[in-house]
Amino acid sequence: MAITKCLHMKQAKMGYPAKHLANGLRYIMNPEKTEDGRYVCGHNCIPEQALSQMVDTKRHFGKLDKRQGYHFILSFEEEEVSEEEAFQVVGEFVTEFLGKDFEAVYAVHNDTDHIHGHIIFNSVRCTTGYKYDYRNGDWENIIQPLTNRICKEHGFSTLDLEEVKEKRKQKGQEENILSERDRRIKKDVDQALQDAGSYEEFLENLSSMGYEVRGKKRLSVREPGAGRARRLDRLGEDYTEESLRQRFGRLPIPEMTGEEIPAEWTYVFIPYRERHLTRYQKERFLRRYRQGKPMADSKTWKYRAAIQELKKLQEEFDFLAAYRIQDKAQLKAISDAAKEQLWENSRARKQLQKEMVPYEEMLLLLNKLQEKQMEAELYQEGYQEFFQDHQTYQNLLGQLKEMGYSLSEAEQTDAYFFEKEERLRIERKKILKEKRIAERLHEKAEEKEKLEAQQKEKNRKPSARGRGKGG
């Protein structure tokens, strides 16, 4: 019986956006787990070049941000399949599920008692540029039924989906009954924390809300009319007495503005075919093309130069229309204003760097946690080979807790600085572009004036032949 589990890899908030995708590909292609790459294969890409090809696809369609890829795991019953059989099943799943739309790498690991396969595929389709959209119900309606069908065709056992649905339904009902009260208490606790300047004020706030505060070893609260008290540490690690006390002896968590980051225009060259070609496909196409046409066009550079000139003309037209330019004095004023704005932008970036200094240790810890997050999740899914990574992840969480921060608070802080950096970067890019266009138009205006002056001077001077006749 093979069970398919679905994970996703989001954009790294610091550094290389596709860092988690790169780590995932490196992990599943580990030679020690795949018999030196024997059980590794690429789908619409070359495994060794998979990361660069996937990023090329994202760049081509202007979708380098947000979710980077997906990681599917097919777990087989112990001793039910061999490596070759598992590799065949995973390969058939990839071919049918992903088709020609996605670049993917899949591998089978045989370094544990139970053989399992890994599939990592790009979040962006290489054919149309649309992103993969995982929706609720896809696992039980599409993904696992496909796994079951392929396993059945090979004579392997399958997963009873009806039994899984029933267990999920029962578990969901239990969780909803238990969590309704917890959510209500948590909301009040968060409000009491927000309004308090110290731990003692926090307890007073809870009392003023009508809660009876109890507990010497473990803090608990009892709602008005409730029969039993509720321990706050049951709400999560962030709500133990130690964690609650630490909240008042730390730097404040910066709040997000809630405003959207301004969108950037992305210029994408769309080839004459609708189908996007990966780097490897481009090389193959070029070789075949040259076989039929040995002499390649040597004037391609002229076409590229013409396209660039057209882009510049479009930029200048939009600029002139937006600012209603009447003379070159306006262009000079805009250029000077842009220089002042660049200086202000630079000063704001330096100020942001100073603001980040007290949080550097926390953000560094968060970055290490994010690098180990995927392995820790896999361990929780039952993969014992990730035990050391899980321990490292837990140790890092402990260090973060000792600093007085929860994981969600660290992520909020990271997102806050990331948003501010992104806004300043986009603002600087816009200012530089406007400054460049204004200076280019100013140079053209001066060149035009110079040519007109030369032409007037030439028209004023009588020709030598004309002076001779007049004498």
UniProtKB/TrEMBL annotation:
One Pfam family named in its UniProt record: Relaxase
Gene Ontology MF terms: endonuclease activity
Residue ranges occupied by any MobA/VirD2-like nuclease domain in the UniProt entry: 27-155
InterPro entries from the UniProt entry: Endonuclease_MobA/VirD2 (IPR005094)
Keyword Nuclease: yes
Annotated region (Disordered), positions in chain: 442-471
Protein name as annotated: Endonuclease
Organism whose genome encodes this protein: Faecalimonas umbilicata
